[in-house]
Amino acid sequence: MPRIQMDFFHPANTLFTVDRTVGRNAPNDRLDVFLVQLLLFLCTKNEISIPQVTVPRGLRVATPVAGATTPARPRPQGNIIIDGICGDQTIGFIEYFQAMMMLKQVSAIEINGQVGTEGSAAATKTLYMLNATVNALTRPWVVTQSDAFPYQLRDSFYFSL
């Protein structure tokens, strides 16, 4: 069950967590997927100062080298659909977000298509970066009032101190 861990004295320390890993070759519990999709929606609905990748027809796409200015994975078209199903679109957005964070050299993040729990090694960094980005973009305690917030999560969230 997804949770919000919130420090009422320091709201910027709000942390969204999942119980099980979401993404490629993961359990993908429906409520956890809803939360990850919501966080990805909030983080990728606007470009975060990274240009779109466009590849001319007939050229092959290669993994960029260090110092590159475009992410290793192109942004999927449109906004992510928040439906609780972890399919190709959700994995594409996870990989795009990981590529953006790698490009910004925010941390040593791996493009593995997974958002994990606090116990998993590489996927934890993605969840940490999603939290940091959401906290920077908006006041995290009002996420539940967003029009994009899935009603399925309304009964499963609880606040812990």
List the helices and strands and how they pair.
Blueprint: E1 3-5, E2 15-17, E3 22-23, H1 30-44, H2 88-103, E4 114-115, H3 122-137, E5 159-160
Helix pairs in contact: 1-2, 1-3
Word description of this protein:
By secondary structure, the chain is α+β, with helices and mostly antiparallel strands. The chain has one domain. The protein contains 3 helices and 5 strands; from the N terminus they run βββααβαβ. The protein starts with a strand and ends with a strand.
What is the 3D form? globular
- Straight-line N-to-C gap: 17 Å
Radius of gyration: 16 Å
Alpha plus pi helix count? 3
Strand order of the largest sheet: 2-1-5
What's the total number of strands? 5
* Overall helicity: 25-40%
Portion of residues in beta strands equals: 5-15%
Our count of domains comes out at 1
Tags for this model:
single chain; 161 residues; alpha+beta; three-stranded mixed beta sheet; 3 helices; 29% helix; globular
How do you describe this structure in short?
With 161 residues, the protein is α+β, with helices and mostly antiparallel strands. It contains three helices and five strands; from the N terminus they run βββααβαβ. The strands form two sheets. Strands 2-1-5 form a three-stranded mixed beta sheet. The chain has a two-stranded antiparallel sheet with strand order 3-4.
